[in-house]
Amino acid sequence: MHDNTPQKLGNRLLARFPREAQERLIPKLEYLTLVRRQVVYDGQAPIDFIYFPFTCVLSLVQLMENGAMAEAATIGNEGMTGIALAMGQRLPLGCVIAQLPGEVARVDVNLMQKISEEIPDARHMIQRFGLAFMHQLSQSTGCNQFHSIKQRCARWLLTMRERSPSDEMALTHEFLGEMLGARRATITLIIGDLQRAGIIRSSHGRLVIADRAGLEAVSCECYAAVRRKYESLISDPFTPVATSHGELKSGTLPRSRS
Question: What global pTM score does this model have?
């Protein structure tokens, strides 16, 4: 059984929705456990469900004609899939897969769209998340262009830790290489460097972050930049915005645990 009071919801964006939206959404949530690489959206078919990650982390990935893929952005317990809804679209931005296995809740897209249309506060929350997500995409473009693979690897691990319930995660060098668009051998060298520095421990497909501050020192500025944007748009109190139904209420969303 899930404790679905706003304070105990496993997804921070869902916990930030106005009560009216929660009362309509929560009874309709379906809870699933996803495995690594499980496809949520194939990038071609219209969206059927909106997913709210709890302990699972999802990746928006770009697929190449030769079968290669690279990660464009991640979605964890701070957000939701299907932000194209905020633009009136039912097609996803691309292929979405489970990056770290775990639990998600999903709801029918028709109900989500109806709530967005009928409850201005909920629509505004989705739009704010959409802006933060688009910033993440933009920041990733610059990061991939200007920062080293070691910096990007550290940033990726920090991003996963922020969305994971523990310092330990199931992760192979091959999968990390796919997400970063790097060769497995290159990832193995980087992981070895981080292990020798005492920043992480890695063996048999498991990775443990032992020194969070050390990992932040290796990472580029993109990790902090993306986090600040999410906090400013999602975590900080609303700036009241007048609507035909009155003004949006203010409130706060709990920040990620370090």
Answer: 0.82
